[in-house]
Every structure is written in structure tokens, then in C-alpha cells.
Amino acid sequence: MKAILARRQFLSLTASAVAGVLLEGGAASTVATDLRVQAIAFDAFPIFDPRPVFALAEQLFPGRGGELSNEWRTRQFEYTWLRVAAGHYADFWHVTQDALEFASNKLSLELSPEKRKKLMSAYLELKPWPDVPAALTSLKQSGFRLAFLSNFTRAMLDANIESAGLAGRFEQIISTDQAKTYKPDPRAYKLGVDSLKLRREEILFVAFAGWDAAGAKLFGYPSFWVNRQKLPTERLDATPDGVGESLTQLLQFLKV
């Protein structure tokens, strides 16, 4: 316990912590930063592996599953942003189903009620990426407070935490549904500050998407991008403090 408190005091009080910024390909360089991190807020997908959803799409629509998955994911996030812009909110479960129905119609695929139910239910049965359980254990043992800050509804988060065997790992389960908006709206990111009762600079946001890492950085969080898809950096006038391809590299970034 003393070791945990000492680490938390160090991370909170140091004015110039040394952190590893992970570069593309897994290489690391060391730069001086001003990290004072006490809590880590995760998007859903650095923790939950969505690939089984897309594998199921291929199983249900042989030869077309990849095409359906890409169209579904694209429209899913476009609908969140369009609904925020229009001031016509619907929660992420509703948006996800609307996006699936649009994608299947666009591709002229027959989405029976049974297939729709199977694909939607897959979003409630996600498992963790292989690196997640050990990484979360290391972060908690090092004294970090852990939270979710996700577009998923609370019901989706709760179901997937149970499915992934991660009950009790997270202090706060924060859905942007609480603010009736979506990231990267600053009102969505502010939920982390309000729930954790910390300053922005004390919360490290861990993103799956480059746009989410940029949005968090623009809000004022230090951010780490878990770039599992090995994508280029988004051109959104904000660069994450760290980038890596797994939570193992997040641990390196935090010197855990």
C-alpha cells in the first residue's frame, strides 16, 4: 500500500515526469512531459475486442461480411456525429441498430430479424483483447484509478464487462449517454472530470480511434492512442501524448 501511495504522490506532484512516447512500429523514445496522471479513462475498444462481431457478419453473409462490417462501422459513427450536429439524440444501441439496417439495405443484403438479433447481441458479448487482463492488474497495482468513458450505453458496458470477466476492475463506468451526446463533443469528455473529481491533466484518456485520441487531447486530457489497426495519425490539430499497438506499450508509456 505504501508503494502504491508513493507512486500516486509522485505522479500527482511531479512537474516534469519522464514518459515514453511509443512510435509506429513499437519503437520508443523518451521525452519530457508534464504528466500528473492519477486516473485512466478508457474507451471501450482498447479493452473489448470487436473482431468476433465482424467474424459473425462473415458467417451470416459469406463473402460479404467484411463489406457489411465496414459499412456498418462507418455509418455507426457517422450517425453519432450527425445526431449531435442535428440536436436529435438517440443512444448508441439505437444508433448501432440503425447503422446495421442502413448498411444491409445499401448492400442489398437480406437482414432477417434473426440475423439482426444475432449481430446486435454480439455487441453485448465481447471479450477482452489478450493483453488486457494483465495490463489492468498492473495499472491497479500501481495505484491508478481506472474508468470507462465510452459512447456505449451503460447497459452495453455492463454486459461486456461481465462477458469479459472484468467485473470490479473499473471504479467508474461512464457512458456519454449521461450527457445525451457523443465524443468528440467536449460535453462527453467532461463526464470524466465530473465523475472522477479530478482535473483534466490528471486523467489519461486511452483511445482506440485516432479521432478519439485527438478529441480528448483537444479537450485537455493527456491521451494515449492504442492503435491496434496500425492507422496513420488523424489530421485534427492534436497529437496524442503516446501511441502504441497494445496496452503493453501503455504500461511502458506510464513506466509501470
Keywords:
about 260 residues, alpha/beta, Rossmann fold, DNA polymerase, domain 1, six-stranded parallel sheet, two-stranded antiparallel sheet, 10 helices, 10 strands, disordered N terminus
Question: How does the SSE layout of this entry go?
Answer:
Elements: H1 2-13, E1 18-22, E2 28-32, E3 39-42, E4 48-49, H2 51-60, H3 65-86, H4 92-106, H5 113-121, E5 127-128, H6 132-141, E6 145-150, H7 154-163, E7 172-175, H8 186-196, E8 203-207, H9 210-219, E9 223-226, E10 242-244, H10 247-253
Parallel strand pairs: 3-6, 3-8, 6-7, 8-9, 9-10
Antiparallel strand pairs: 1-2, 4-5
Q: Quote the beta fraction.
A: 15-25%
Overall pLDDT score: 89
Q: What is the distance, rounded to the nearest whole angstrom, between the alpha carbons of the first and last residues?
A: 16 Å
Low-confidence stretches: 1-32
- In terms of structural class, how would the helical and strand content be classed? alpha/beta
Number of domains: 2
Report the CATH topology name of the largest domain.
Answer: Rossmann fold
Structure summary, number of beta strands: 10
Number of helices: 10
Largest sheet: 6 strands, parallel
Order of helices and strands: HEEEEHHHHEHEHEHEHEEH
Highest CATH level, the class of the largest domain: Alpha Beta
Label the CATH architecture of the largest domain.
3-Layer(aba) Sandwich
**So what's the overall shape?**
globular
> What is the CATH superfamily classification of the largest domain?
HAD superfamily/HAD-like
Order of strands side by side in the largest beta sheet?
Answer: 7-6-3-8-9-10
| Whole-angstrom Rg | 18 Å
Helix content: 40-55%
